[in-house]
Amino acid sequence: MRTLALISTASALLHSQAPLRSSTPLGAIDITNRGYVRIDTEKETVAHPKAAPVLDEVSLRKCVDEAVQDADWHRPISVLGSTGSIGTQTLDFCRARPDRFSVIALCAGANYKLLATQVAEFRRTVTTVGISDGSKLEPLKEALKAAGVDCASLEIYGGADAATACATAQGADVVVTGVVGTAGLPPTVAAIEAGKDIALANKETLIAGGPAILPLLKKHGTAMTPADSEHSAIFQALQGVPPNGMRKVILTASGGAFRDLTAAELADKCENEAEWVRAKATTHPNWDMGAKITVDSATMMNKGLEVIEAHYLFGADYDDIDVVVHPQSIIHSAIETQDNSVIAQLGWPDMRLPLLYSVSWPHRVRMPQDQWEPRFDLVELGSMTFKGPDNDKYPCIGLAYAAGRVGGTMTGCLNAANEMANEMFREGAFEYLDIPRVIEAAMEAHKADFIQEPSLDEIIEVDLWARRFVKDFASAKKEVFA
């Protein structure tokens, strides 16, 4: 591939206005006198532009070599939370493009049956398997045997260390962190320390652990690319923008399940139709997501958490991060640059798109259209609408901004209190309006023990404290109304 006969083509190139075409084992290469190389394979086109024209054989050979490298890449990945929404959608594109992605490790929480099915499907490349619920380890092994998988050929882990073992699996270059909540923090830290790149689908890692995670990334020279739609949109919009070129981050939000109700109407529903509210909050109007994040979208705490994540990922000041309600979920977020331009990323609401970019960056991967969403069509879309968030209806946004401005362990307190309140709401122990109330109470109580520059151990300690606070709050409420 690298020994192409380019001497004659270089000479011809310098004296011809016509593009030249050569063949390689990878596909056909087009070379133009403007210094542009394009490789056409069966599945995609890889373009490699040069800043200056190709002038001689040496520069031509270098140009072709770089284009071939751009076309001939492969990513071995580890998927944490493989049986959840993030994990199954990640495996969708691994399944569609095995030439680009190989699955090295799979880790689930408790769903051993689906995990065994996934391991059986990707058995050609999988070396490491984990299940965080230790009681499911033996059932997992039995399910693997029933699926015809040779367990002796695998490293299989169960319990608290399973996710960390998969995150550090030998041979994986990038780790998709699809674990919900701060449970994703320890394996993410371990992956960074092992030199793995991170496709960040677990926003709590930065929200709670940002003060400790960012120095760790710098120390180990690893990359962290966002895998959620909003931060992926910002990340994509920033490609080609010079340092200090961004003035503002614009985070878009669908508005969640209650976007069509006023604050007064929602309060009335909460008082008189509590079970309708509970069912409605767990159904998202646009996205196919897990239960926790769907409820977070209903309260718009999800957007508040994304404000904090944007601060850590992109260095944006909280005064320079705006939230805009965009019910169609077509503009996934945008940036405003110093010259007043606005750069946005658009697309149908499909979580696989940001996931795909997070593990393939800086490349773009063509997916089979019969397995993917229809191509984006502005005419079919027709129109888009925008409005500011109702702070009375969505107090969680204000709580997130307040926690972010304080920084330190306050963001971890906010996150843990929200996780526990969200879970207890879904289980019926809390009502919808209890969620922001208990979070605010936890933040107020945490002021006495706040730490500005916490260690990872201190971050985890605050996380556990906030969860206990919410449980105690629920117990006290139960006693009052018993």
From TrEMBL:
Pathway(s) it belongs to: Isoprenoid biosynthesis; isopentenyl diphosphate biosynthesis via DXP pathway; isopentenyl diphosphate from 1-deoxy-D-xylulose 5-phosphate: step 1/6
UniProt keyword list: Apicoplast, Isoprene biosynthesis, Manganese, Metal-binding, NADP, Oxidoreductase, Plastid
Alphabetical list of InterPro entries matching this protein: DXP_reductoisomerase, DXP_reductoisomerase_C, DXP_reductoisomerase_N, DXPR_C, DXPR_C_sf, NAD(P)-bd_dom_sf
Reaction(s) this enzyme catalyzes, per UniProt: 2-C-methyl-D-erythritol 4-phosphate + NADP(+) = 1-deoxy-D-xylulose 5-phosphate + NADPH + H(+)
Enzyme class: oxidoreductase
Family to which this protein belongs: Belongs to the DXR family.
Domain 1-deoxy-D-xylulose 5-phosphate reductoisomerase C-terminal: 225-314
Keyword Methyltransferase belongs to the record: no
Record-level GO BP terms: isopentenyl diphosphate biosynthetic process, methylerythritol 4-phosphate pathway involved in terpenoid biosynthetic process
Domain DXP reductoisomerase C-terminal, first and last residues per copy: 346-468
Cofactors (names): Mg(2+); Mn(2+)
UniProt-listed Enzyme Commission number(s): 1.1.1.267
Protein name in the entry: 1-deoxy-D-xylulose 5-phosphate reductoisomerase, apicoplastic
Subcellular location: Plastid, Apicoplast
Pfam family, one: DXPR_C
NCBIfam families in the cross-refs: Dxr (TIGR00243), PRK12464.1 (NF009114)
Single GO MF descriptor: NADPH binding
Organism name: Pelagomonas calceolata
Residue span, 1-deoxy-D-xylulose 5-phosphate reductoisomerase N-terminal domain: 77-210
